[in-house]
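Hypothesis: this fold can be encoded by more than one sequence.
Test: take the structure tokens below, design a sequence, compare later.
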């Protein structure tokens, strides 16, 4: 995906990779920041309380991201025993990542609407392209990470809500079968044209439409034929 874009439109490829790095970096930094605020310094000691993308990028996650458009960053470690309220502080730490993506998406959307108000499609700038990609990428990351499948951030909320012993089988399914289901879905998405992550892309484009008061699918098509 990225390599095709790199050879076809290097400027858009550069904007795409910068938007990805910013989104992932802020996402992981937010996990580390909330962990510190809730009493755990594990992430800070391991150099993760930083906005330096090199501290958060996982090479094994970056390569498939560039090749197939799907990857990951280094997970931020934390010790629940250091937290003031281990059960719900763990949820706050997990949800800090998607929350940061929502904030970045809102900022990108506002900036984009301001620029589009004074820009014609014939004179789209690289900044407009970057803001649009940042908006979409952050919406995708936010919604995807809220899915209640381990190890995604949403699983921490699911575990907290299913804390009663009678939900032990559900918790075990999320912890053990969740990653297997996620891996199968990733391979299907990579190897076929089936949109198995429709439950992510659909809401992401709908929110994008709402933020821009326009059709993001149309703008996306225009951008990649620009």
């Amino acid at each position: 995906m990225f390599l095709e874009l790199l050879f076809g439109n290097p400027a858009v490829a550069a904007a795409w990779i910068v938007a990805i790095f910013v989104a992932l970096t802020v996402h992981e930094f937010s996990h580390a920041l909330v962990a510190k605020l809730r009493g755990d310094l594990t992430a800070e000691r391991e150099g993760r309380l930083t906005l330096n993308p090199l501290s958060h990028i996982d090479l094994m996650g970056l390569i498939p991201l560039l090749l197939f458009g799907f990857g990951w960053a280094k997970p931020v470690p934390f010790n629940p025993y250091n937290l003031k309220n281990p059960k719900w502080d763990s949820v706050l730490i997990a949800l800090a990542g998607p929350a940061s993506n929502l904030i970045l998406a809102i900022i990108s959307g506002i900036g984009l609407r301001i620029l589009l108000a004074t820009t014609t499609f014939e004179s789209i700038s690289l900044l407009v392209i970057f803001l649009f990609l940042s908006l979409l990428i952050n919406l995708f990351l936010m919604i995807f990470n809220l899915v209640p499948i381990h190890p995604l951030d949403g699983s921490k909320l699911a575990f907290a809500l299913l804390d009663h012993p009678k939900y032990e089988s559900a918790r075990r399914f999320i912890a053990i079968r969740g990653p297997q289901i996620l891996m199968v879905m990733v391979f299907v998405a990579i190897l076929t044209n089936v949109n198995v992550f429709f439950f992510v892309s659909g809401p992401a484009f709908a929110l994008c439409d709402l933020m821009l008061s326009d059709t993001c699918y149309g703008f996306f098509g225009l951008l990649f034929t620009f």
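Residues 2-223 form one domain. The first helix runs from residue 2 to 8.
Hypothesis status: open.
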